[in-house]
Amino acid sequence: MIIGLDVGGTHTDAVLFGSHGLARDVKVPTDPDNLYETVLTALDRLLENQKARDVKRLVLSTTLATNMVVQNTLPPVAMVVSGGPGIDPEHFRVGEHYYVVPGALDHSGREIEPLDEAQVKEIGEKIRAAGLPYVGVVSKFSVRNPTHELRLAEVLAPFVERVFMGHPLSGVLSFPRRIATTYLNAAVFPVHRDFFSAVQETLAKKGIGVPIRILKPDGGNMNMASSLTYPAQTILSGPSASVMGAIAFAPQDRCCLVLDIGGTTTDMAVILDGAPVLAAGGIEIGPYKTLIRALQTRSIGVGGDSVVRVRDGRISIGPDRLGRALAYGGPLPTPTDAFCVLGMADGGDRERAEKGLLPIAEALQTSVTEAAERVFTEACREILAAAQQMVNDINSRPLYTVHEMHEGVRIQPDQLLVLGGPARQFADRLSSLFPGQVRTVPHWHVANAIGCALARTTCEVTVYADTARQVVTAQGEGYHEKIPSGFELKNIREVALDLVRKKALARGANPEFVQTEVIEEAQFNMVRGFYTVGKNIRVRAQVKPGLIHGYDPVSETLNRSDL
Amino acid sequence: MLRATHKTGLVFFPAFDWAIDPTHPEREERLLYTQDQVFEEGLLDIDGIVELKSDLVTIKDIQRVHFCVPDPWAVITESHLISAGGAKTIGMAVLDGTIERGFALVRPPGHHANRVVHGARGFCNINIEAIMIEYLRRAYGIDRVAIVDTDCHHGDGTQDIYWHDPDTLFISIHQDGRTLYPGSGFLNEFGGPNACGTTINLPLPPETCDEGFLYAIEKVVLPILDEFKPQLIINSAGQDNHYSDPITNMSFSARGYAQLTSLLKADIAVLEGGYAIEGALPYVNAGIIMAMAGLDYSHLREPDYNPDRLRQDADVTRTIEKTCNYALEIWRKRSSIIHTVRQKSGCAERQRQIFYDTDNILETQQEQIRICDDCAGALRIDSVSDRGVRILGVQVPRKACQACIDQARHWYEDADRNVYRHIFLQDRVKDQYLERKI
């Protein structure tokens, strides 16, 4: 049996999934001040009368780290960065304990200025004196040559409990994002560790011995042990749970738009030929732009409980939510009340909804029923407009080769998959506005938790080789080796695929079914003067986000004896 | 939080799969390290800096500027459509107001491409700035444009295209043509008989440093721009004046380029040459982007930057001062120079030979311009290459007077089909490009 659990802003959804498919699902309200209790309540209810030892896999998606970042409750951590020439690193300051030190590498990873170790030691003393247990170290171009970060970590280690380095987090170039990501990693670490250790311990007492897996915003998961090294990679995983819940139902050869319509927001994403479209950069959260790999998603403040108003004779929906719908005792009219008036709701106080919509109808000089129709249509229109904007954004991503320009595929979704609380009602109206097929995802109310349960372990590596310097570097793998000068793209491709496989296994992937692929590769002759001195080779490989092996989307069952 | 004070757009098209040949300076690798530097600095994440996706130019856009022999497809590759498209994308975004300024960081370059194109010269096939400008004039009704070419090589192609156009000010600052390709761009090249003074050349001696370049900008370029009052300023931003460039002899630095960019305040910059791809381009390009966006670039320097070794010789300084004074004098006396140039009424002629170094073609050209006080003048070009193809190109300029329209029509219609393989009419009034068939 597999448990999938998704902590949302309003509700926490959990499912128990077995060989016969969905065995049980529960929905409990989220207490943002006590996520631990929320998670345990959901798990307790899910496991009532079930054998805990049958649980072979458990995947959680929580808002723990997200909330800390958004609410600005991150504990102070120290940062030591070395930039060298370029933009003054002071501009990328995070926190009060931020030190810029000498030391620089160029774009090929060659040292252009050494570190000043004596100064770094002094900073170490200051950090210890300030009582900070964690420090992040980042140098510009460290993904091309991690030597400076490794040395900084070594020098600072005696002064702190733990040092977090920048280069293991991502192979993507961006010094400012590397600083922000390293900072978040260090700052989120203690709470992340305490929370999941506590959950794990409690589960052990209940007889669930399998290690927890944690969902990531790229639609994959990693095991608890890896998450302690990369805790920031669990931030903003919520939208990816929904996408993974829908992915089994997306066609393999078309472009599909996923809409997760909740109470407060609608999250959207695109699935192209059966795989989710990844964001070009990393996630952005609060003031931080990061290197945390994520699905391309967009969230707008239109949901079932968004406040409906009339402004200048036009209906305006959201982006705020002030509690539940009127029909369920809330304070102001919402799209849910419109469903209620139109007789589409499963429950709720229809009279209260009608009364609440009356001022809207009056402002629009129409009947309550017509007002409800218009609220409903407007909500759908806004969602589709935002989705089109996201599609346009994907289509306007810059391309860097003639080949790509020539291929120049433009995506245009012709399928719509809807999930979330009011999915059924919305799908009905969306089908009259969307020029394509509209479907609700089976088990639409808990599909996000099913997505958690069935998401596979993902990861990515970037390998950079310079055959003139005879070095190959892969971020995060502690991999910085000598190579023969005759190495070519195919050799580096092998290195990358091998590394990504090892990394996936370390993160808890199933060794029998690790599907690796190269997502980007390029090889350049390096010419100095008029002679070729070597090759500059770059390869990115990944385990693509998808569902675990053995899941059959037609019967919605799992054919795996080990789970 | 870092924020651009001028909203700046970037088109970055490094053409990672296009090269003239594998070890040619104009090869796949050229913007690789620039991309690394721009990405690692996080420049594209800064508030107020946006990356735009390059659009393509059309054949019509090319034909508005060039006479391609025998046709555009024969002289370009797809990469040229994209690189010119990058410039066009930036131009449109500036005029649409979505960005305040923009930089087309594209390759291949274009400033050695003349009006007639038989092939590639100086690594250029089509003139990407001119294609952008003529598109913007057509689509947005722009009239007066200034181009400041800061590539180390004389922008002879752009000069050729705007030689007769009094509404386009072309200023080229470059290494003295006696010491560098293409061997032109002297002070006495100041425009055709209808456009005297709107071509300005500032040939600078080898070893010119930051000081010399900035002097020329402040003393000559800025005052002339001020007086000309262009609606758009375009910088042909070649980066081969850098002290480490392998094919030139100047001593300009990345910070110098950034300062030049701050002074010039160009609306649009378009990358031209620059072949110190590891040691200079990453820093120069970062500097130009930062300067355009109004960001502090005082921390920017090359790894081997040593200002003490980049001091200008007193001789060099004196030569620069003399050149600058002379150029300013030409500008001030431009209306009286016209009388000297127009020795006779009717048409003026010039005969030239143009060598296409990249493709090894020799072109012989006979050019006739109708001397006109009312417009840029009808233009007739009789061009033959050593490959034996002879063509006639006739141009009706933008804003042409009736007499020039009639003259151009006459040239086009009366040309002898037995003499010319192709007879072209580029009519900028009607925005038409015609080839006369039998």
Topology:
The complex is a heterodimer of chains A (563) and B (438).
Chain A: E1 2-7, E2 11-18, E3 21-29, H1 35-47, E4 57-61, H2 64-70, E5 78-82, E6 98-101, E7 104-105, E8 111-113, H3 117-129, E9 134-139, H4 147-156, E10 162-165, H5 175-205, E11 213-215, E12 221-223, H6 224-229, H7 238-247, E13 255-261, E14 266-272, E15 275-276, E16 284-285, E17 288-289, E18 297-300, E19 306-311, E20 314-321, H8 335-341, H9 350-364, H10 368-395, H11 402-407, E21 415-419, H12 423-433, E22 437-440, H13 447-454, E23 459-466, E24 471-474, E25 479-482, H14 489-506, E26 516-528, E27 531-543, E28 551-552, E29 557-558
Chain B: E1 3-13, H1 32-41, E2 47-52, H2 59-63, E3 67-68, H3 72-75, H4 78-96, E4 101-106, E5 116-117, H5 128-140, E6 145-149, H6 156-162, E7 168-175, E8 199-204, H7 210-228, E9 232-237, H8 254-264, E10 268-271, H9 281-293, H10 314-332, H11 334-341, E11 347-356, E12 361-370, E13 379-385, E14 390-396, H12 402-414, E15 422-427, E16 432-435
Parallel strand pairs in B: 1-2, 1-4, 3-5, 4-10, 6-7, 6-9, 7-8, 9-10, 14-15
Antiparallel strand pairs in B: 11-12, 12-13, 13-14, 15-16
Helix pairs in contact in B: 1-9, 4-5, 7-8, 7-10, 8-9
